[in-house]
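dumping the sequnces here before i forget
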Amino acid sequence: MGTAEEIRTVLDGRWEEVRQEVRSRLDPETFAPPLSTLPLDEHRQRTLQAVLELTQTDFARNGLTEEQGGTNEHGASVTAFEMLGHADLSVFVKAGVQFGLFGGAIANLGTKRHWDAYLPGMLDGSLLGSFAMTELGHGSDVQSLLTTATYVPETDEIEIHSPGIAARKDYIGNAARDARMAAVFAQLVVDGENHGVHCVLVPIRDEHGNPLDGVTIGDCGAKMGLRGVDNGELTFDHVRVPRLNLLNRYGTIDDDGRYHSPIENPSRRFFTMLGTLVRGRISVAGGAGAATRTALTLAVIYGLHRTQFHTPDGESEVRILDYRGHQRKLLPRLARSFALMLAQNALVEQMHRIAAGEESSEDAQRELEARAAGIKALTTEHATDTIQVCREACGGAGYMSVNRFADLKADTDVFSTFEGDNTVLLQLVAKGMLTEYKDAFHELDTRGAFFFGARQVTEAVIERTIGGSLIQRLVSGSPGRDGDDALTDRGGQLDLFEDREKHLLETLAMRLRRAGEEGADGFAIFNDAQPHLLLTARAHIERVVLEAFVAAIDGMPDGESREIMERVCDLYVMSTIEAERAWFVEHGRLSAQQSKSVIVAVDTLCAGLRPHAQTLVDAFAIPLAWRETNLMEFLGEAGPDA
Amino acid sequence: MGTAEEIRTVLDGRWEEVRQEVRSRLDPETFAPPLSTLPLDEHRQRTLQAVLELTQTDFARNGLTEEQGGTNEHGASVTAFEMLGHADLSVFVKAGVQFGLFGGAIANLGTKRHWDAYLPGMLDGSLLGSFAMTELGHGSDVQSLLTTATYVPETDEIEIHSPGIAARKDYIGNAARDARMAAVFAQLVVDGENHGVHCVLVPIRDEHGNPLDGVTIGDCGAKMGLRGVDNGELTFDHVRVPRLNLLNRYGTIDDDGRYHSPIENPSRRFFTMLGTLVRGRISVAGGAGAATRTALTLAVIYGLHRTQFHTPDGESEVRILDYRGHQRKLLPRLARSFALMLAQNALVEQMHRIAAGEESSEDAQRELEARAAGIKALTTEHATDTIQVCREACGGAGYMSVNRFADLKADTDVFSTFEGDNTVLLQLVAKGMLTEYKDAFHELDTRGAFFFGARQVTEAVIERTIGGSLIQRLVSGSPGRDGDDALTDRGGQLDLFEDREKHLLETLAMRLRRAGEEGADGFAIFNDAQPHLLLTARAHIERVVLEAFVAAIDGMPDGESREIMERVCDLYVMSTIEAERAWFVEHGRLSAQQSKSVIVAVDTLCAGLRPHAQTLVDAFAIPLAWRETNLMEFLGEAGPDA
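..and the predicted 3d for all of it:
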């Protein structure tokens, strides 16, 4: 096995076979990315067709338990969909709506009667559905949705109603054209009492595709990207559905018209329900990562062949990836893509263990949700940044639609704000950290104990789920912060990331503690601390990502492949520290001299990895059919890379 | 006059009247941005129509001297085109190709015979033209173009030829559909000798629009944006044109078939020719700035009205621009837009003085070119970054085409790599700085003198063209680097920016000096220093931008408007330092404590400017017709801002 192959198997992870099957099996004609020059209707039709083709695969069925008619192979399911992110992102998203969101709502919020009635149609495409959560007035603040689902005892029905334009369901995928049914999130009112947001299955179109009585469907029309996805608007005017259409796993109305829930606290119930939908967020991160790898593959290969300007001796033209500035654009981002992919793999494994019933605890679920939120935020942000830089790295050629960056950019752009706005998600991560911190801290009520115990508490809070004992060993064996090689030793690097997270969390908790004091302006204190809070979440996720990288390398045998991966990991670490080095110096973690040495280290690592650039993108193993361009139309005078 | 009006007049600058005329005069039907959902052909036709309408204005004629049939109002011309950047960017670019690039080549590289023969048709639209410089094989490296223009004494003609695919003229605006003639850049060969790149006018289509013999025209087809611009490819197969079609201001072939040039050195001649085309680069920066202001206007107003999540007391929903995180996304970028606009105004004035003959020296021209390159790089980079953030700040609504961000992003994206790739431009800036530094340093050959004199030399090299004496006074009066208010005092801030530039330049010069040493690997030394070199250029341009801001405020009377502008300037300064604060600490310019205080200062300035956010975007005075969206379809429960 060559070096690229060896690295590919590490990146492919536990579901390598699934990835290999998708690479070889999906028909390029149907799944290769079309140019967005197709007329909108044709693009939508083509996308629907591809989604229907997917019903011939096991992708979606693998994501259901046996009781739901599936195979309980959740990780395989998510991995297969992730691979679609290399191909056509409209198909990726529309399939995500059908199988992940609509299907996921039925599977996770419904009970056996819903599984039996609707999952077969969801799987074979005979029942196309939407996931109607977001409203015009409330996107991120799902708890404040305005749509109501009122139980009508007289007819044993539930009445869905949109009170005003702010209640209009908006940007709903599959709604403008194809969906026959929608999983509608609404305030459930029983006997005059509001039990909070629940999900109800509402038919929206008849078999001819016409809106049903009381349902008004709008078309969001042209979007920046994802043109193959028919996003629409849904408004309900006192639409009645049978009581049994309530997805009633976490809240039900009994035959006597009384509301029951296994979770007493309405807020806890709400967050439990949302939490079961975490897979959508994980999938978006996966698709964003895949699209980013496509862009990097194109730009790196272009940079290896394109020449521009002569060497000082005038003898030959320089390949642009030989320029340090160009290396600095692409290689640290390539390293970060490796890191995020390995973290994503670990996240999918974690999700799989819980979904398959191999692991089950509230803590594990809570941690999964936080990591999914954080990795989704960082991966989609990385996608936007990196695809942009890759486009620019290909100059005018990068601007032509035929070379893919136009669609890659436009399609992934919305990933940073859908399935959870990234800023809101990072807040969620930080709030979770604060809750744990508070839980672990029993003596919070006396100031003295607070200061005394802070560090021990964070020690307990910092969890090392991925490769826990390995990481512990590395950190313990590190030369310590003042050692000369603190920055180059893996344990020292881990310690640096972890120490930063702890410090940020401790000081954040201290700041926010004031909000509880007598007469304090809670909003003002929280608001002033918001940048600090967001930084804490980032530091946490960077640490989790690094741990995943270290754990993945640990499984590799010694040799060239491992050596290269160690350098890629170094580049991820050093470029991450470089971007935040001001913080490390401000807080006495790095001296000014060490801080400068980080810049030099990034340069050196870029130069050292330059000869392996082709190997690194080969390891992504993206089928040629999914990355056809005319970027290689003219290779430059230097010809193919040596 | 209200506050917004007062600030508008400062931002509008010397050509305020021109801006006001454009705001009120351009027909919204023709110039309002169309959605990119128009079929490609219709979009191109609409764009051509708008460009033809512009022939009814003075925009282009103002950019020519009286001898060329113009009015010598160069600044007014560039300012009017800049305003088009608020409207339809395809029109902006296509007009730029016709009047700026094609017309500019004739005006600046041609002589009276070309002006008389072609400028009237260029102005009235009867002669549509292209600017055929870029080739598939060589974009940034214009000096290495492959197309040849060979003098044929037998018939007194010039033969244009494309030797191979790398020589194909590519991405040429106006070429795919409309141009009848192209200004073709090619290696001029006379009597077997290559005199370097010159420009020749070559007819490419007959009156029916069919390609002429020997001319092959391709269509670049779909692009990421600028769909109204018909970019194409031109290949020449031994195409002959009369000798007099050579634009011969800087190099001519006499009646005896001999080559003459007023500039002996071929490289100097080449750069002089390119230098005269600086206006295109200035215009791109102007258009990028305008588009950015449109995006900021939309996102800020949305943030002022859109509510999401409740206050802790649960009483009302929070306007999203009240969140510190949201303020930090938009307000520092708003401040930077102010800074860059004022720097752009100063740049246009400088260009105008030289073009109108009010000022003329090689130094002034060289400085203009460097500033144009630097401000173009920073302004277009700012556009890409800011429009993206504005899109995200509007969530799902920002993704809908009707809300403009899709086209604003896609249209401006290429600005960072056309009219000079930003990285190449920043290198150009730094190289200019190094040349000056070397020129000023006479004792460069002895190591001792080098160290001794370095600081004095940079003092001489740092030029303060904008508001020179004012800046000098402020810097001299500053409390000094160690004073408590070094960071808040304007003179102290200027000193900080200037000191950084000096240090970067001195150390860069020292690094590169080694390249000249015996046996040194020149490319390796240059390449290792490339990030340092790019940083030096950035530091220089940031200083120039700050000086322009300070000079613009200096003209304002005391009062609320000035007070607000001072705070906007502070925010520009503090957020710029914040992003680079690691450098300041690493080099002993800021203590760790001061560095932290910069973060707090940005937070405080954001909070302080939040109440003036509406005023600040009102000061951009972008006509409503050019920024129509449905973002205000639902304002949120809070209703209009107080």
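Chain A touches chain B through 82 residues (CB under 8 Å).
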